Protein: Putative membrane protein insertion efficiency factor
Amino acid sequence: MSLALLPRNICVAFLVAYRAVISPLYGDVCRYYPSCSSYALQAIQQHGVIRGIWMGSRRILRCHPWAPGGVDDIPEPRRRLHTTRAGFVLAHEEH
Structure:
C-alpha cells in the first residue's frame, strides 16, 4: 500500500467501522441511495480525502426530511482506483 494512500485508507477504516457499528442502530433512514455513509465512503475511495469529505458533507446537508431523495451516485472519477474487499484503496501498478 502506498504511503500517499494512508490518509484515504484511514478515512475508509473509520467509515467501514461506522457502517458496521453505528449505522445499523439508525436503520434505513437515508432518503437517498446509496446511503449517506456509503456515498461518503465511495467518494473518499475514488476522489480522495479532501474532495471525498467535501462531497460527503454536501450529501449529508442535502439529506433532510423534505429532500426528494432517490438515486444519487458519486460522479465518475477521472481514473478509477482499485479497492480491496474490505474497501481499502490500492495504488495503481505502473505498466
DSSP finds four helices and four strands in the chain. The helical segments are 6-21, 23-26, 36-47, 49-62. The first strand starts at residue 32 and ends at 33.
